[in-house]
Amino acid sequence: MGLDLIERINWKGNEIVLDAGCGSGRLTKIISTKIPKGKVFAVDLDSSMIKIANERLAKISNVKFIQSNICDIELQDKIDIVFSNAVLHWISNQITEKCLDIFGNFSNQMVNY
Ligand SMILES: C[S@@+](CC[C@H](N)C(=O)[O-])C[C@H]1O[C@@H](n2cnc3c(N)ncnc32)[C@H](O)[C@@H]1O
């Protein structure tokens, strides 16, 4: 399902992407190949997931993994696309205004709930 979301986008190749709840980085890796001139900020709450993802993508330079609650994330970079697969149901009982900023203000984002 997440793969379908990725393939649905007409990538330009230079997008800045936020992968919200990246898990083990399985889909992050595929996104990174779509944007050779862009960057993925991949965020997950679970430090063990971030560790696995970092190891899995060790040779990929356009991904930065961040261990954080997605509702608390502060990024300096302007985000073009918020990608989030199979995550919203995990946080639906902790939605804050900040979360709504992240998910709500990107009307064309790739959220798969
Ligand atoms: C079902 S996994 C999906 C992983 C990945 N998106 C994929 O499709 O392969 C859900 C992930 O969301 C993360 N997660 C849950 N609540 C989160 C939060 N508040 N902030 C960041 N990540 C969160 C979990 O740690 C878990 O790795």
Architecture blueprint of SSEs:
Elements: H1 2-8, E1 16-20, H2 26-34, E2 39-44, H3 47-56, E3 63-67, E4 81-85, H4 88-91, H5 97-104, E5 110-112
Parallel strand pairs: 1-2, 1-4, 2-3, 4-5
Bound molecules: S-adenosylmethionine.
S-adenosylmethionine binds at residues 2, 21-23, 26-27, 43-46, 49, 69-71, 85-87, 90-91.
Note down, in words, how this protein is organized.
This protein has 113 residues and is of the alpha/beta class. It has a single domain, classed as Vaccinia Virus protein VP39 (Rossmann fold, 3-Layer(aba) Sandwich). It is built from five helices and five strands. It has helices spanning 2-8, 26-34, 47-56, 88-91, 97-104, and strands at residues 16-20, 39-44, 63-67, 81-85, 110-112. The chain has a five-stranded parallel beta sheet with strand order 3-2-1-4-5, with helices on one face. S-adenosylmethionine binds at residues 2, 21-23, 26-27, 43-46, 49, 69-71, 85-87, 90-91.
Please describe the structure with a list of short key phrases separated by commas or semicolons.
single chain, 113 residues, alpha/beta, Rossmann fold, five-stranded parallel sheet, 5 helices, 5 strands, globular, binds S-adenosylmethionine
